[in-house]
Amino acid sequence: MPTKIEIITIGDEILQGQIVDSNSAWIAQQLLLLNLAVVHITTIADREDAIVAAFDAAKRRADYILVTGGLGPTKDDITKRTAATYFGTNLIRDQHVLAHVENIFAQRKRAMPAINEMQADVFENGEVLFNELGTAPGLWHIHDGKSFAFMPGVPYEMKHIMSQHVLPKLAKAANQGNIVNVYILTAGIGESHLAESIQDIEAEMPDYIRMAYLPKLGIVRLRLTGSSQDADALRSEMEGYANRIKERVNEHFVTFGDVDLEGAILPIMHSNGYTLATAESCTGGTIASRITAIPGAGNVFKGSVVSYTNEIKSRLLDVNEHDIERYGAVSEQVVSAMAAGAQKKFDVDFALATSGFAGPDGGTEDAPVGTIWIALATKTKVHTRLFHFQNDRNINIERTTTQCFLLLWQQLRNLIGKE
Amino acid sequence: MPTKIEIITIGDEILQGQIVDSNSAWIAQQLLLLNLAVVHITTIADREDAIVAAFDAAKRRADYILVTGGLGPTKDDITKRTAATYFGTNLIRDQHVLAHVENIFAQRKRAMPAINEMQADVFENGEVLFNELGTAPGLWHIHDGKSFAFMPGVPYEMKHIMSQHVLPKLAKAANQGNIVNVYILTAGIGESHLAESIQDIEAEMPDYIRMAYLPKLGIVRLRLTGSSQDADALRSEMEGYANRIKERVNEHFVTFGDVDLEGAILPIMHSNGYTLATAESCTGGTIASRITAIPGAGNVFKGSVVSYTNEIKSRLLDVNEHDIERYGAVSEQVVSAMAAGAQKKFDVDFALATSGFAGPDGGTEDAPVGTIWIALATKTKVHTRLFHFQNDRNINIERTTTQCFLLLWQQLRNLIGKE
């Protein structure tokens, strides 16, 4: 039986949509690397009855139960005392933790509020997962043969405690079979077309290899997952299928690997010595921020001009003022000039530009909200594309960003071949 | 008894951390506006046993069960047939849906793969929630007195079906009491200090008003929540407490309202006629993208230069080359010059600048990874701050962005008074 993990996230703020639960995804990623499977994620309210019911259910489903949230010092945080009662243990004050909490306040040159002393309360028969980065310690407790780990909901503190304390404990419990994942990133082909074009390959796969389609706007990632004692043999079998899929989807293949389009593009550009800049109007810096989120982006990316006014388009990107007046800022002429301007200003091989009405307000009769032009300038040519999206601002920004990466990737592919 | 909602998210990609479940937060937000409470969020695998167990548990806890994910045409999507068996009904092909699916492919001028015909399969005794935006229809089925809604996991299709079909149905079921939320955004004070400073006010609150602390890096949002037949009376009582908290926290009060720091800053700047630009090195456009994610940002924000090389810092922001050589790009001198340069180039009242080593690589002996300078230039002065963060690139970028907004907000507060 593989070791089973359940994640319980405690917090009204998640149930009310105040916070997106990104902790669970991060935890699941780390566990995958240890060949451990998350079988269930539960999100519940800061309420005693909900916590007790979730613990009961999780104990039936999983071997290890990772609980995040509800460890703060304030009144709404009841996780610790509910758990102590559930485990039939007491909370006792840990002097080592207390000294650490006091020290954190001393370092910040602030007096420590008395309620913070409670942060040093830990399970009498449990283990402390020391939290160097914050005042709420992690806790570990074994109950009815199941292990419970408690961590604060603040992402960087949770990640620290997971990395320092919980993952090492779980590594020992990792199952014997090795999970192998092989990824194939495709672009510009829809999920169902992709599925149809490779259905014979999929049908040939043995039961111990599962394939999943992970679609996002404009891209579909395929993931082959299997588990075996002999990871190398399994991987090479899976790579055989992956290569057949690559050949089949032909120009829609981007790369092997668990990356986004920009994560596939940057290494290709780097290894070819290409440089990149952006001139962003409606995307407002989102393309630049997506690129620079990737370590080593500086090897390729030189920068961006976010031009949120016509004046800035002229002043920093040398877009002709009369063109803006004549054609409007959201036009093929202007977006082309932005891209060409950025290509020259940043002296790069490729420059992407965007200009559109992202909404919800704005737009003209000819170019209503959702009308978006993008352009890619090389040293010799400018390519443009026109899109008509809806009026959800953030979706429009995301779609435009993806389309820019797609356009760039297509041009790169044409330039450097299909590999 | 208030109407209870459970969200079930189906997908291996979430349990394996491939995707962050942002759908649930969005759904919860919409339901909150209808005074409906999400009591539980469950994430499970694309497996029959997990789906059946989740349906069983959800039926015990909730009145309405909203299921997202697993409606695609590909082999890994088993939600629909598992549900049909569970409900004791059949899947039948809906000709109206089939025509719509065929039409979508026709519009895209693509042949329809045969497996897409299955997208038109719906529950024999259920209701179709028509999906104008995609090929997978939403489905509605009542079983054992509980209502199940099925929606695709693609966010914009899910949002469309929720808005068009599910929310109108749920609105009728909304409970009689009205939920009232009052928010208080604070900045620059930690959760526990905040809690201690207002603990007497919190203690005075009646049981029907609950207060939650929603901390993020550098900010804490307080949410007062209550429910009453007389929403106006409750709101005015809650606003009384909120005003006392505002006075108590004094300079740490930012605004009433469920917004982030940038969401509080932009309206203040707009109403005072102030303009803003950014010059970003280590944040790579993230500050600009956070600002421009807000509708109407163009009233305040003129643009940004993302300067990822020294040459661009000189060429586009007029930073003195010799200063970069002498002090290094990550220095008080250079970040000040970037801010001052952006203030002039964009001709704005305020310009934010960042320069630092976000990691994981880079850094110097004097300025290791995590060393980050920020600056805020007005027409007459430049304010700077130095931070020493750790080596997680994305956290460093986020922290730096928050610190920039904090610095800007503090200067705005000094300029225009405390309200």
From TrEMBL, chains A, B:
Pfam families: CinA, CinA_KH, MoCF_biosynth
InterPro entries in the cross-refs: CinA, CinA-like_C, CinA_C, CinA_KH, Competence-induced_CinA, MoaB/Mog-like_dom_sf, MoaB/Mog_dom
Domain spans labelled MoaB/Mog: 6-172
Family as reported in the entry's similarity comment: Belongs to the CinA family.
UniProt-listed NCBIfam families: cinA_nterm, molyb_syn, PncC_domain, PRK00549.1
This protein's name: CinA-like protein
Source organism: Sphingobacterium corticibacter
